[in-house]
Every structure is written in structure tokens, then in C-alpha cells.
Design brief:
By secondary structure, the chain is of the alpha+beta class. The protein has helices at 18-38, 88-102; strands at 3-11, 41-46, 54-59, 62-67, 75-84, 106-110. The chain has a single domain (3-110), classed as Dimeric alpha+beta barrel (Alpha-Beta Plaits, 2-Layer Sandwich), CATH 3.30.70.1060. The protein contains two helices and six strands.
Length: 114
Amino acid sequence: MPQYLLTVIEPSGEMPPPEVMETIMHDVGAVDQEMREAGIWVFAGGLYPPSSATVLRPKDGEVLLTDGPFVEGREHVGGFSIITAPDLDAALDWGRKLARATTLPIEVRPFREG
């Protein structure tokens, strides 16, 4: 069965207040549990902010390390879920549930087969 990446797109900047985050995390946990019960859950995780990133770039036979995100932007990847689904429409349905739970945009992308 095809796998899909459901990417949570977070705005850069301050996090919502704790009472808002508590509700969001509860709702995300419920969707995560629903995915597990449906047998489509493969893996999921949240990420630290972009400032924690290290970028490795090949140059002239060497690999250079720089601190911080690859690209500065108003949005960044905040987390993701990997699911199996019979088709894109089913993956989009799960993406809708995750968008409602996170209150954020969700990008749904299929993995290449093979």
C-alpha cells in the first residue's frame, strides 16, 4: 500500500499560549490514536524549532556545516506523520483530520515507490 507524508507547516515565531497548546496536543493525540487503530500509522514526530538545525553542504569535496535552518522563512516543518493509505483521496482525508487537530496547514505527499 502506498505511503504518504503528512507534514505540519508551522508559522515561525512564538508558540501559542500553554492553554491553547494543551488543546492542540490533545486533539493531535486523538488523531494519532485514530490512525493507529485504523492500522495506517507508520511513524510520527514533532521537531524542535529551526534554530536547532544544522545544515551540511557539500562543496569542493568537503562537507561544510552551518547552524540554523536551510532557509529562513515565515513557516517551517514542525512535525510529520507517515501513513499508509490505499490512495491519495484517503491520505487527504487523514490530512484534513490532522489539519483540524493542529489548526495548521498540512502538506500531503506520496513517497516514491521502489
